[in-house]
Amino acid sequence: MKIHHLRNATLIIEIEDKFVLVDPMLGKKGTIAPFTLFRYKAKRNPLVGLPVNSEQILDKVTDCLITHLHPDHIDKAGEEFLKHKNIPVVCI
User: Fold this and answer.
1) How far is CA 62 from CA 41, 44, 49, 55, in A?
2) What's the sign of the alpha-carbon dihedral 70, 26, 6, 32?
3) How many angstroms separate the most distant Cα atoms in the chain?
4) I need a labelling partner for 65 at 20 to 30 A (CA). Which of 14, 16, 42, 91 fits?
5) Residue-level pLDDT at 34
6) Among 35, 34, 36, 5, which Cα is nearest to 22's?
7) Long-range contacts for 49-57 (Cβ within 8 Å, ≥24 apart)?
8) How many domains does the chain have?
9) Which residues contact 77 (CB under 8 A, 6 or more apart)?
């Protein structure tokens, strides 16, 4: 098993021939409305860009797991990726 961490909660778990994308936040840095706790100044999400090699590993994705529906665990780019690739999704 290998884990490829992309950002925050977004990662890919590689198990034999399966590549499970977890919490697909795939949009460009700073393109989504802020998600914040009251004590901190709001920042636009995602807070960091995707790693340079992310496209290479994303091409191998076979399945998706969405752990829960907070706004920092899936975004429009993630949805579009899943639809375009016809990736099966498991969620709550």
Assistant:
1) 37, 29, 23, 14
2) negative
3) 43
4) 42
5) 76
6) 5
7) 49/7, 50/6, 50/7, 50/26, 51/6, 51/7, 54/6, 57/4, 57/6, 57/12, 57/19
8) 1
9) 24, 25, 26, 27, 28
Structural domain including 66 reads 2-91
DSSP 8-state code for residue 58: H
- Tens of pLDDT along the chain (92 residues) come to 999 999 989 999 999 999 999 999 999 998 887 766 667 777 888 889 999 999 999 999 999 999 988 777 899 999 999 999 999 999 98
Chain-centre distance for alpha carbon 77: 9
The position carrying tokens 């460009």 is 28
> DSSP 3-state assignment of 64?
strand
